[in-house]
Design goal:
- The protein is of the alpha/beta class.
- It has a single domain, classed as TIM Barrel.
- Helices cover about 30% and strands about 20% of the residues.
- It has 8 helices and 15 strands.
- The strands form 4 sheets. Strands 3-4-5-6-7-8-11-14 form an 8-stranded parallel beta barrel, surrounded by 4 helices. Strands 1-2 form a two-stranded antiparallel sheet. A two-stranded antiparallel sheet has the order 9-10.
- α3 links the parallel β5 and β6.
Length: about 270
């Protein structure tokens, strides 16, 4: 069964001609940055007939080292910036949550709660997010088989919430390396819920730079185009005007000006795969 998840006027489902694009900078570095990126993403997705959810993290709790930046702006100020962005641009917003205590603070802001990959088995966090009755997007852990995702789905369903997205972001393959199992990704479609392909974290090299993670952004485009042939519900791509100076995940983020070509190519392959 192909289950759909509704977000206002957006219908999110697998095997669709109108794909979802979850995108934005990894970290909320400044109000100026998020407004610049959001403005461009709105234009790009409209031109290419994508639905858009703007993504930006207020805190990166999962860090390789204490010497790397977690957050630049306090939670209350981050919420204010994202609320203004949402209002001014009429845009749907998601961010990741790391603790149950954060959910009440964010419930009025976010349209979608994102569960980070390393926390995808944290039952209390998943259930608390599900109890808001908002959409819950779970990033599949790098350590999980695709079959085990069903257990996560059941945790959310048991809270009477069937607004579920599952995001693929690669599996660990030895040290500091990830691979994508496209057979496993296709298998997850059998659960019925929308599957999102995270193209930028799939090319991450976890801990690969010692004090922080590395990445290989040159593979973002080919992996995204490969995933488009699976007729998934959408794509997750973090982007920045200049990833080389980004405060978090720069090596695997995509240059903002390259997003239009990515969207165009994905659309063509998705339609050809019908």
């Amino acid at each position: 069964m192909n289950k759909s998840v509704k977000l206002k006027n957006q219908i999110i489902k697998n095997d669709t001609d109108k794909l979802l694009f979850i995108s934005g900078p990894c970290l909320l570095e400044s109000e100026k940055l998020v407004r610049l990126v959001a403005k461009n993403l709105i234009n790009y997705t409209k031109k290419n007939n994508f639905n858009l959810i703007f993504k930006c993290s207020f805190d990166k709790a999962n860090r390789s080292s204490d010497k790397t930046i977690r957050s630049k702006i306090p939670l209350d100020k981050s919420i204010e910036i994202l609320k203004n962005l949402k209002k001014d641009f009429n845009i749907n917003v998601t961010t990741d949550v790391h603790e149950t205590s954060q959910i009440d603070h964010l419930s009025e802001l976010v349209d979608v709660f994102q569960i980070p990959a390393f926390l995808c088995r944290q039952t209390d966090l998943i259930k608390a997010a599900a109890q808001t009755n908002k959409i819950v997007n779970v990033k599949k852990g790098q350590f999980l088989s695709h079959k085990e995702v069903e257990n996560i789905i059941l945790k959310i369903e048991n809270e009477n919430n069937k607004k579920i997205l599952i995001t693929e972001r690669g599996n660990s393959f030895g040290y500091n390396y990830l691979i994508n199992d496209f057979k496993g990704i296709y298998f997850m479609k059998s659960f019925g819920y929308p599957i999102i392909f995270d193209a930028t974290h799939s090319v991450q090299l976890p801990g690969g730079m010692g004090l922080k993670s590395g990445g290989a952004r040159e593979y973002v485009m080919p992996l995204a185009k490969s995933a488009a042939a699976l007729r998934l519900a959408g794509f997750f791509v973090e982007t920045h005007p200049d990833p080389e100076i980004a405060l978090s995940d720069g090596p695997n983020m995509m240059y903002l000006h390259k997003i239009p070509k990515l969207l165009n190519d994905i659309n063509k392959i998705n339609k050809a795969a019908k």
